[in-house]
Every structure is written in C-alpha cells, then in structure tokens.
Amino acid sequence: MHKKSLLTILIVVLFTFSLTGCKQNKKQNVYQTVKTSKTINWGVKADTPLFGSMSIKTGKINGFEIDLANALTHEMLGKNAKANFVTTTANTKIQLLKNKNIDAVIAAMTITPERKKQVEFSKPYFPAGQSIMVADKSSIKYIKDLNNKKVLVVKGTTAADAIHKFAPKAQILQFDDYGQAFAALKAGQGDAFVTDNGILAGILRDSSGYKLVGGNFTNQPYGIAVNKGQTQMCDHINQALTKLEKDGTYNRLVKKWFGNIPGMNIKEIEKH
C-alpha cells in the first residue's frame, strides 16, 4: 500500500507539472505585452551610418531606422510610449527575437525566403538593392559599364553574384570589409565599388569626390522582423507604417537622412 501511495502521488505531481508547463510554454502575444507595457524593445544596428550608428558626441544610437522605430512606437502605443534600443548584428538578431530579448528587429534586414522560415516580416520599409560607387570623374553610369572593369566587393555579400549576372565580363576583387574596399577604390585599385545602396550612402556621407550611379540594379528591400507566429504584432507594425507613409512622416525622415547624399535619388525611396 505504501509503494502504491507513493506511486499515485508521483503520478499526480508529474501530471500537475505537465499542465503547468503547458501554460508556461504557451506562445507569448508580443503585441499584447507591448501594449500593456507601452514599450517596444527594438533590435537595431549601431555600426551602419544613416541607418543606425553610435554617436561619439551623445553616446546614443541615431539614424533613419532609429527615428522610424520611435515614430512607429508612438503611432502604435501612444505619444508617451517608449522605444528601447538593443544593438544587434547579422548573427544575433534572429536569436534575440527567439529568446524574447527584443520584440522586433529594424536593422537593415533584407527580406529573404530563408529568413521568412524563421521570422514574420512587415511590408518593405526601405527599397534596398545593389548600387555602384565611382569617383566623380568616372565615365561609368550603369551596371553594364562594369564589363571589362575592376569592381571591388566585400566578401560574404551578394554583390559578386549580382555583378556576374549583370556584368559577366567584370573583374571582381574581394575585400574583408567595407573600409578596405573603399580604401582600395580611393587608391585606384578598382574602377567601382558595389554593395548595398544604403551602405554606400553611409560611406558617401563622410567622403567627398565620389558618387552613386545607375540607381539600384537589384531589388533587396528591408523589412521589420518579429518572431514567427506574432502576426498581431506584424499587422500593427504594418498599419503604423502605412499611417506614417500617408501623413508624410516617412518622407520627412527619408529627406533628413538621405537627402544630401551625392547620386542618391530619394524619389526612389519616398512614398507617393
């Protein structure tokens, strides 16, 4: 009898624990959480000029995506709501979402089929794509002009594949990072530097004697990511984005951050 009683108690305890565990593991509704807390924790970039970079003067992250995240937060949750910013990288942003350290990612994140398997994406908020940087005196105007030219790219990006597709006779030289590639362009080691238009715009902000040409020759738009299954959060982000586009806030931020970049056609970015 004693052994049977212990067995019965053990079964009851395990059964109760399993029920409790189910409740604890129930998927969190992120939108309801942020609505209650009046706070959204955004994963952002801190090393990408114009989008999100650390200011030496203020010690704070600023950029187009930071301003847009603030505007979205207030549109979604009210003027007294707060946007918190958590620095992310290409390798950490999805994991931070999965671990619930952040509620959403707005960090120059290209919408791809592979990423859609892990996260929910908002509608595109920035029409990113591959673009071309050349010296002011260069005769290069379009992607086809890169044939038989030396083109500088960064390892691990999609630039090399894009050039092979659109300018198959180009000679491609690869570098470890954007700084090295731009230094090579300045040193005359190549005729053009190709990568994401937004990254090139950030480099141009602090450099003279160079320009963007030809517009984007690929279409790789950025989207805001939330954890898989958080459709309510995604829907409210989309609604807020649409409102900011209609009331002129979006275009004002585009003009603020990209309006003075040589060769950057903000008409391609603005919402009309």
Automatic annotation (TrEMBL):
Classification via InterPro entries: Bact_solute-bind_prot3, Iontro_rcpt_C, Solute-binding_3/MltF_N
GO function terms (MF aspect): ligand-gated monoatomic ion channel activity
Residue ranges constituting the Solute-binding protein family 3/N-terminal domain according to the UniProt record: 39-261
A GO term from the CC aspect: membrane
UniProt GO BP: amino acid transport
Keywords, ordered alphabetically: Signal, Transport
Alphabetical list of PROSITE patterns matching this protein: PROKAR_LIPOPROTEIN (PS51257)
UniProt xrefs under Gene3D superfamilies: Periplasmic binding protein-like II
Stretches assigned to the Ionotropic glutamate receptor C-terminal domain: 39-260
Family statement drawn from the similarity comment of this UniProt entry: Belongs to the bacterial solute-binding protein 3 family.
Protein name, as recorded: Transporter substrate-binding domain-containing protein
Organism per entry: Lactobacillus crispatus
